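Morning!

As promised:
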Amino acid sequence: MVKLCQSTIIDAPVDAVWAILRNFNCHDRWHPAIAFSEIVGGEPVDAVGAVRHFRLNNGGVWREQLLTLSDKDRRLSYCLLEAPLPLMGYVASIRLKPVTDSDATFWEWRSEFNPPAHRRDELVKLVSEGIYQAGFTAVRNLLQRQNRGMPIGPSPAIAVAPSPASTPHVARMAAASQVETTRAILVERYGGPEVVELREIALPPPASGEVRIHHTAIGVNFIDVYCRTGFFDLLQPPGVPGMEAAGVVEAIGPAVSGVSVGDRVAYACPPVGAYCERRNMAPDLLVKLSDDIPDEIAAAGLLKGVTASFLLHDVHAVKPGSIVLIHAAAGGVGQLLVQWARHLGATVIATVSNDEKAQIVTRLGAHHTIVYSRDDFAESVMRLTDGKGADVAYDAVGNDTFGGSLAALSVRGHLVSFGQASGPVGNWDIGRFSSKSITISRPNYAHYTDTPDKLGPHIKRLFAALRHGVIRIAPPKTYNLGAAAQAHRDLESRLTTGALVMTA
Amino acid sequence: MTKVYVSSVIPAPAAEVWKLVRNFNGLPGWAPFVAESRIEQNAQADQIGCIRNFVLKDGGRIRERLLALSDYDLSCSYAILESPMAVENYVATLSLTPVTDGNLTLAEWQAEFDCAPDREAALRHQIGITVFQSALTALKHRFGR
């Protein structure tokens, strides 16, 4: 039995260090050896028993299980379940203690394991130096970057909500003696693409608790169409639609902390108002962008990526071996669902409307692709699964596919209806669902993302997945802000594949 | 029950710091507020149950019983039997932990006690800052910083 113990002093308050280390799935954000990590089955990261499944930069796959987590003692322990190295019986623990006279942190990392005798020295060195000491250095660097306000963060770079106790920044905008304006797309009344108009609208200085963002790229989503038509009442005409954009913080109102002028940020959240050059909004749900995430990828992918994340992990936890049916698989969310579900180990059956889109989703990794304009997809799913059916169907098509989705499910299957591109699904007699004990979910984006705590895990998972190539977001089709009506027409006509963004 | 906790990083290996602080009769050698100390009844200073009887530089006298001493954990616990401070059930622990990075030592000193509610804040400050922290600061200076 080898016992290792490494410890260091980190020049940061113990709570700041603990905030990083207590997150059992955060190590890919700071440890240089780790390429990608996720919690198996979408368990909460602080659930004792959670298993993290991660890949090192050298390709090795590891699984570790959380055994102890104590906020009281600032201690956690975990064991190894699977590793490419013979670290037999490896159990490790981390504990932190405050250094009260300098507001620093003592961090100890210890472990026990049984290496084969001939590899003992090599493994001891690898664990002590390659894991523990490298980890100390990485967390130290991370905290320094955080102090300098750089946009890489362990608790996924979510800007801190304004706190009355914090020092307010002085607004940079001069008190508006002359009214500033910005170009924006206005929905005058609910209706078709023709109701949107490019206008010059007033832009007051950011109020208390607000920041001003200068947009560089604005996401165009089907939810914007629903806002325009009045299907959702998130927008009251006359109003500016849009819930997703990337840009740069240009000014900060009073009583805002955690955000600085010049920060690259993105968001995917209500309130509507993204279809404009510049806007003011509360910073709570702003996501700081790290250098490796371009603006247009963020604007193209944040809403869809976060949606894919909660659909695959929270609404239904896709597991290795799951049979997953994905409609509109060549669309924005669809493309992400296909890639991510495949990475999670599922068998992916994708439906698309034509052969060109079929080629796209096949390239993305769909195991089976069905052109639903030609083949009955419910029959095809049953044939492909030997009559079993899909464990889960992700259906944002709505009216055209809802009935077929029900028919394509397995016994105790789960229909996740998260959109109605072809129209509302209408009324259904839920008594019929007992024939297969079907579960239906109708998730609402806001209920999975409307606080930093809910949004944070999805952002972290999404950025890690992007960074490590689990999902790729194709360069979006771009439009000028003035061409918003055309963007909507293209989106509604299903001529597009992948994401649409507007440049401000 | 009131708790006090302070800690410092001492710029020396734990074994070296332990040599100094394990001596239950050694406070005058490093704690700035202690004038003289003796072990009662001719006991050894590392005999569990022994009582140290020491005089503060301000003239106060304190008697403390050694409750636990561990050369394995580098820790020492004791209880106050008699003191000018109005505390009851006072038990304190001084412990050292090696910091492998740089070969330093984390020194922690904590105490739990009961007292009159209106005295709590003053006692926490007196014990935490005036006694424990100033002694740890003295240790830091003694080992070079």
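Residues 120-147 of chain A form the longest helix (28 residues).

Hope this helps with the figure draft.
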